[in-house]
């Protein structure tokens, strides 16, 4: 499959003045600077700003384990059930997977017997799971759900409705081989180039900017890439 590459450099330049939305997005990825968050919020940003992967400031705060930031964003109007990334996950879905993975890894590698069998030169490292447990609690308390987009009965439908409720464009997604956050999705945005290896070099490929399809496009292959 060809490669997708952004046409322009990364939007975050520390020497440049960021938009209110981008500043909030970046600050929420730090998670430990409440005063900077307050300053960013005073610029009246759209708290539901999405980047190219569908990630919002709330997603960033979730991924860095900042329950305080998550709570403040939700109080400011952030939607807790935005579906993002090629895996079509909500913040609760992501943090649940994170907690489950770290708990299982901790049980497997850091039980009493395993630690006491270690050589004296080895060090057992336990993951810090508690911040993510707190984030999970905050999301659940504020109506966070798991999308289960790829299941036979998704909790959040493609139109953004939850359990048969009202549709919501902010939560909506397209579930298909060329749907949300797939290679075709990025190419349709006009912000990415399509590249391929030819004679050991990366060269640009032609593609249809309306569909995001390229010569030899295979929906089945694209869905599993």
UniProtKB/TrEMBL annotation:
InterPro entries: Ankyrin_rpt, Ankyrin_rpt-contain_sf. The keyword S-adenosyl-L-methionine does not apply. This is UPL3 protein. Keywords: ANK repeat. It comes from Symbiodinium natans. ANK repeats lie at residues 53-85.
